Amino acid sequence: MSEQSSPELPISDAEKKKWSNNIWRFGIFRFFVDFQLWIPIWVIYLNETRGFSITEITFLDVLLMVILVILEVPTGIVADRWGRRVSLSYGAFIHAIAILVFSFAGNMAVIAISYTVVAVAITLFSGADSAFVYDSLKAAGRQDEYQKIWGRVYSISLVAGVVSLVLGAFLAAITNLWFPIVISAGLMLIAWIVALTFKEPPRDEEPGSYREAILNAVNVVRSKPPVYTMMLFAGFVMAIAVSFQIFMQPYLRSHDIEIKFIGVLQVPEQLLGIVAALFAYRLVGLIGIGRTMLLCPVAIFVTAIGLGSFDHIAAFAFYPLAGVIFAMSFPVLSTYFNDRIPSASRATVLSIYQLTFSLFVVLFEPILGWLADTRDFPTAYMVAAIILAVGAPPLYIIWWRANRKEVLLEQEV
Which of 143, 235, 254, 312 would staple 138 via disulfide (CB 3.0–4.6 Å)? Predict the structure, then answer.
């Protein structure tokens, strides 16, 4: 039975306002976290300024993911034990330091250190962000609005991304690839200052010791087949989609696109993603969670086939399709997990999903990056399509059966 169905005590207007204020503050926080001017040029920066190959860049990303795997659950416990506000504020501050280190990195060792610090920051955000919003809404008696609100929050992230794509690429074109990265460190510090204004939302129960927090989270996942099967299915599919994002910038450069146009060409994907995030809750309400999740591997498969069929800049038109699915998945998956997770273990359990996703990225991204380097981009995309075609259907069926069983059991209660 989901938390959403549990009875709630009456909440005063003053209490509702107090916890609702967290939501708009978090929106500002999220904007500056994602208003990062290095985003449209970071792969080009590593490739053209620092001289790394696509294979080396994907292996750096694997390093990031390995550290994420190691730290996801421990940092999720930080949010559950010491507070979502603590986790988010520390994450923003550490991320600012990481970006600054990245901008001055002159060799692989220093860049690897910056990636390590970025991984720490990401894991402090991961799980804590959606848990913070969900618990704030729950304290305000508005948890039924979570999927819609989280979609809006994610659309704010995408708006920030659109602005940073255009402005970051423009700044890089008129200055150099280094300058937008340094500015981004300052923008992340603004996010840190905003995080300090958050009010820690109450939770249903307080977590026990560090060990107990881990065991409780693992037991929650093990006891809920729809949760862990969704983690496997969604992590598998979204790992392929993320690999496409790594290839986007070098793919455009391989077709002689100037740096000043790199950001502009990524804007349509972001704009469509904003719409997808805003209306994801309507789609789920219209066709159900099962059909919505089925769209994910199908759309990403179509993207892979389109990009792999011919090596021409026109094939880039398929990219927004994968971006829309990736954007839509955030509010949909976040709602699905949050509705089935007790408050005391929420951030830790959500971190387990990020761990699952990271493991799949570690598995797929080096293979696809190596193929892009040694063969070509279309070959890498076609192999991604084959991986999806082989792995996604059985994982979807396993999840669908577990979810269907849960629905039937709830109907009997």
Answer: 143
Q: How far apart are CA 165 and CA 167, in angstroms?
A: 6
CB 172 within 8 A of CB 42: no
Tell me what pLDDT residue 26 has: 95
CB count within 10 Å of CB 226 equals 20
For 116, 171, 273, the CA distances from 362, given in Å and listed in that order, are 15, 32, 25
Residue of 371, 372, 161, 361 whose CA lies nearest to 251: 372
Decide: helix, strand or coil at residue 342: coil
- The answer to whether 31 touches 193, Cβ cutoff 8 Å, is no
Distance from chain centroid for Cα 271: 17
Distance CA 53, CA 36 (A): 23
Inter-residue long-range contacts of 220-226, CB under 8 Å, 24+ positions, other chains counted:
220/341, 220/342, 220/345, 220/349, 221/349, 221/352, 224/340, 224/406, 225/402, 225/405, 225/406, 226/340, 226/399, 226/402, 226/403, 226/405, 226/406
Contact 383, 363 (CB under 8 A): no
Domain 13-199+224-412 falls in which CATH fold? Answer: Growth Hormone; Chain: A; (1.20.1250)
Domain ranges of the chain: 13-199+224-412
> Among positive and negative, which fits the CA dihedral 125, 128, 131, 133?
negative
- pLDDT (tens digit, 9 = 90+) per residue, 251-299? 988 888 888 888 888 888 888 888 887 788 888 889 999 999 999 999 9
**Residues across the chain:** 413
User: Among residues of the chain, what percentage have pLDDT more than 70?
Assistant: 93
C-alpha triplet 237, 52, 99: angle, nearest 5°: 75
User: Could you tell me where the beta strands, DSSP code E, fall in 262-412?
Assistant: none
**Residue 130 pLDDT grade (very low, low, confident, very high; cuts 50, 70, 90):** confident
* CB contact at 8 A, 87 and 125: yes
d(CA 336, CA 332): 6
Token pair for 190: 């603004």
Tens digit of each residue's pLDDT (9 = 90 or more) over 59-112: 888 888 788 777 766 776 777 778 889 999 999 999 999 999 988 877 888 888
pLDDT digits (tens, 9 = 90+) for 350-359: 778 888 888 8
